[in-house]
Amino acid sequence: MIHLRGKKFTSIFVKFAASFILVGLIPLFALSLFSINAFTGYVERYTTANLQQMVLYMSYNLNSAFDQYNEMSKIMYTGRYEGFVESSSLNQTYNVNELEQINNIPIDSFLKTVLYSDPYISSVFFVRESDDKIYFQDKGNRGLDSSLLPYRDWRRQMNVNPSKVAIFPTHPTDYYGDYKGNVFTVGRNLIDISGKVTVNPKVVGTLFIDVDVSLFNKFFKELNLGDKDELYLLDGEGQFYFSSRELSDQDKEKIAGQSEKGMMMISEPIPFLDGMLTARIHRASLFQQLFSVRVTILIAIGLSSIALIIMGTWFSRRLSAPILKLMKQMAKVESGNLDTQVEVRSNDELGRLSHSFNRMIDRLKEYIDEAYIAQIKQKQTELNALKSQIRPHFLYNTLEVIRMNAVDKDDHEVADMILSLSNQLKYVIDYGEEKVGIGRELDNVKDYFYIISVRYDQRFEYVSDIAPEVDMNWQILKLSLQPIVENAIQHGLKRKGRGTVGITVEKRGLDLVVTVYDDGVGMSADTLARLNLVLNDAEAPGKNVGLKNVHERIKSIFGEPYGIVINSREHIGTSIVLTFPILEESAPERTEV
């Protein structure tokens, strides 16, 4: 058989199926891969171009926003908001230091006007140059801790070019106390231009405008960034004005100007900052839908390939199956099994070959019958004759002769033991019965117990209690009580030395209940639990084979609700309850022996 199976995979049918599959798979794979590459290339180019256009549009909007705040800071000079007047002829030094005004209005009113001129401005500061007095307006009515306000550092940076607006990158607003929001700050010096022009401009004070970074979020939401995408706004010196996630200084140094595997970088300039808006897009997330389409196409290719393989295999098997079956039957005949036939399903060459094989088997069987069957039958007859000499009645008659011999010698105890043993043998060897009347089973127990009591010098006593309503012809499982009585003697009474085994029979509803009890040593709760587990778990190993055998036989013959229930208490005794349905005993067929 191994030889035949090995050749099966090198047969011409397998080669035919392989050729059929390859001819179909190669064009399928080639066309599918070309289609996938063309489609994915187009989608990637379109997606990248669209994303580039969106970043360009965003950079334009951000640059316009910075220009807007630059123009807003110039109102200290132009006075174009809220009815301000031209201030080029005013003495700003006198106006700020003596009158505490900007453009002829109080500084606090000027700051409040600036504060509410734009929804993203969160607070406005003006620091007077002469005494560092801070004027402050805030939308949230938050307290200002001037010691934490870094205006001195900011002014030092602005001293490089006093007349130019300064943009300070995103930073936390720790100077608001517990509030930890992030802003970027626009700073512009107020220069007194009323007098003579000097080499070093005369700075009267500095205006600082805190702009909430939610301004950036308004623009960045248009990109619909994924969880793994990143967006950064950097100035020409590499300072981060905004990032889509929290970054440490080490991360900032690593990210600035660098590409990363699996990330696509798109950058557009921000002229106002002389910086760049950089988007780092996670390729896998960006083209996730494309990957899904690709996977779908690959699954379709896989299913088509599987269908093609199945069809090729099925076609090959249809051709090779009759020949393989014939080869298997020939192998059986070769091993000596002639009880085989090949099913003929067609009239073609394979059908005629199968028919010829069947005729050959029939002729071979006829030849074997002629040569050997007669001799085999003769041997079988001799064997049956030998078996017939050993009959149960021969054993019964022998035991009866021995018993009568004991009676003649007045050894009545031995005679009674032989009679009990004979009765037991008749009861046990009477094959074909699974259910017997309760009376017959109790008689067998009585015969068994008599032998046991003689063997153990009458140390054990047997009692029975039959309820009046019990019909002795009601059926129970044959040989169900004797193993339990034997178990009670072996495990309960022998260890105690003496005791009593009792049997009660009663009717409970529609059931016949038999209880076998003893006053032996009993068993512990753990032992009882293990025994019940063995009874109810068919796979559980155990030593109480007799009990388990009786329990499973009862369930098998009478049904699942019936069987054995064990109760026991250590040093008190054990009781085993057997439950049967009430069935009338049918008249037994008797054979004369």
UniProtKB/TrEMBL annotation:
Residues 390-584 form the Histidine kinase domain. SUPFAM superfamilies: ATPase domain of HSP90 chaperone/DNA topoisomerase II/histidine kinase, HAMP domain-like. Keywords: ATP-binding, Cell membrane, Kinase, Membrane, Nucleotide-binding, Phosphoprotein, Transferase, Transmembrane, Transmembrane helix, Two-component regulatory system. GO terms for cellular component: plasma membrane. It is a multi-pass membrane protein. It is found in: Cell membrane. The keyword Transmembrane helix applies. This is histidine kinase.
